[in-house]
Design goal:
Layout (H helix, E strand, L loop, with lengths): L1 H14 L2 H9 L5 E2 H8 L3 H13 L3 E6 L2 E6 L2 H14 L7 H8 L1
Antiparallel strand pairs: 1-3, 2-3
Protein name: Metalloregulator ArsR/SmtB family transcription factor
Keywords: DNA-binding, Transcription, Transcription regulation
InterPro entries: ArsR-like_HTH, HTH_ArsR_DNA-bd_dom, Metal_resp_trans_reg, WH-like_DNA-bd_sf, WH_DNA-bd_sf
Length: about 110
């Protein structure tokens, strides 16, 4: 049980930063690159790179290189399920994004 608590605590700590949580939410509907995040979230590149590095080092996201671009995606179904729960609890019912359809599909 302690191992599970340690894992959960680690994941929740990574999600407790607003920028990191927003980045993870954008990955719910598929992989994104830094320019996608900049456009969607209005977060500047240095902050994006720093927070994406934290998420990658924590094992919450996977990366894939395509030429000069690095694409980021969620690393596990557990992270996806946690994001779905947070969405259900905290996002207004009338809030519509590209993520809404995917979040409600599972």
């Amino acid at each position: 049980m302690r191992v599970a608590a340690t894992t959960a605590t680690h994941t929740l700590k990574m999600m407790s930063n607003e920028d990191r949580l927003l980045l993870l939410c954008q990955m719910v509907d598929g992989e994104k690159c830094v320019s996608d995040f900049e456009e969607l979230l209005d977060i500047r590149q240095p902050t994006l790179s720093q927070q994406l590095g934290v998420l990658r080092n924590a094992g919450l996201v996977n990366t894939r290189r395509d030429g000069k671009r690095i694409y980021y995606s969620l690393a596990s179904d557990e992270v996806l399920q946690l994001l779905q729960l947070l969405y259900a609890l905290y996002c207004p019912r009338d809030f519509k994004t590209d993520n809404t359809e995917h979040l409600n599909a599972n």
